[in-house]
Amino acid sequence: MRKITLKIPDFAFRTFVILSFLLAGIGLTWYYSLQSVAPEHMHEKSDAGGPEDKIILTAEALRNVRIESSEVERRQMKEWLEAPGVVEPNLNHVVRIRVLARGIVRLVHVHLGERVRTGQVLFEYDNVEVEELLGKYRKYLSRKVKLEARSDVARQRAERAQRLAAAEALAQKELELRIAEKREAQAELEAHLAEIDLIFSKLARFGVTREAVSGLSWDYSPLQKVKAPQPGVVLDFRLASGEVIFPDQQVMTIADLSHIWIKASVYEKDLGRVKVGQTAEISFVAFPEKTFLGKIPQVNSRLDPQTRTVSVRVETNNSGENLKLGMFGTVRLPTEDHIALVVPETAIQRVDGKDVVFIQTGVLEFQKRNVDLVHKADTWIEIASGVTPGERVVIQGGFYLKSILLRDTLAEHH
Questions:
Q1: What is the pLDDT of residues 209-265, one digit of tens each?
Q2: How far apart are CA 320 and CA 158, in angstroms?
Q3: How would you class 294 by CB atoms within 10 Å of its CB: exposed for 0-12, middle for 13-18, buried for 19 or more?
Q4: Are 70 and 53 contacting, i.e. CB atoms less than 8 angstroms apart?
Q5: Is residue 228 within 8 Å of 122, Cβ to Cβ?
């Protein structure tokens, strides 16, 4: 029987052969893929660069990417003046609570930041002045009774003297004396009644009625209740139980925040474009989708020497009270209309820190163009230079063209 022996290569050689076949297969696959796939775009750049940058897309790339363009046109634009603003309370809807007399706080019913309604009791205090006036009023009422009695006696004596004088039973001098006494008693009573009326007028300021103190046996409490004169929010609060308060002391501030002011700061050079009665639009970062409307009731007559700005008040409705005091916003004031060269705001892209648009110069060709922007109105951007009327500017797909431009520029640098 013949014996057959096979020689098998060692492990290293075997591994080398396998890897060679794998690399050859990968190379062939890569080569044929390059031969069958065409580039999606070409990027041409002139020696000058910048505005001459062109992008040429393939028909397949244009089908895969939605690119829309519109004509550059002239249209009527509303020119706006923008100024920073801050929310403040409308002083026409702010009340500052003070007491009418010196007193001692007994009860406090509200606290800082609380919303109150008209007629709601804010706090109660012992009115020291009304207590003193009540004592004086009681004393004058008591003396009034005596003076009325004296006046009646003087009147009766004068009438009796007149009858006796008519019967020639009394001297004329004695009659004149009795009449003088009657007039003096009547004058004193009238002066006393006038003083009582004066005291009561002071009491009436504190809500005391004449019925409550009409007799001598009344018991009127000097505890006064201070009520809210309007609805609103308690902004300032300087009150505590047991504290002594005085007439010149402001103890509380209530503001109706459904009506507010936006205080805008307008530069000196722009004052000629602002006037009382002008309408305004206000926007806030907290409400990016909402625009608040207002009107200018006042332009300050004093210029801030440090900032060279003038405060302009814009009055607006805040019925939902979404705007909070101290919030910052942007006030936009329409000044005048004019005809301008405009493009939709979606056409603007930023490349290398510059504003650019892409002009469609052919079915598959696009050109980057640097532009100088003036200002925005609604969804339109006014252009000072860089485009001409009738050119077609890309309004959708500009970011795709920008990415191609940046990618190719990066590749050139490498």
A1: 777 676 555 666 778 889 999 999 999 888 899 999 998 889 999 999 999 999 999
A2: 76
A3: buried
A4: no
A5: yes
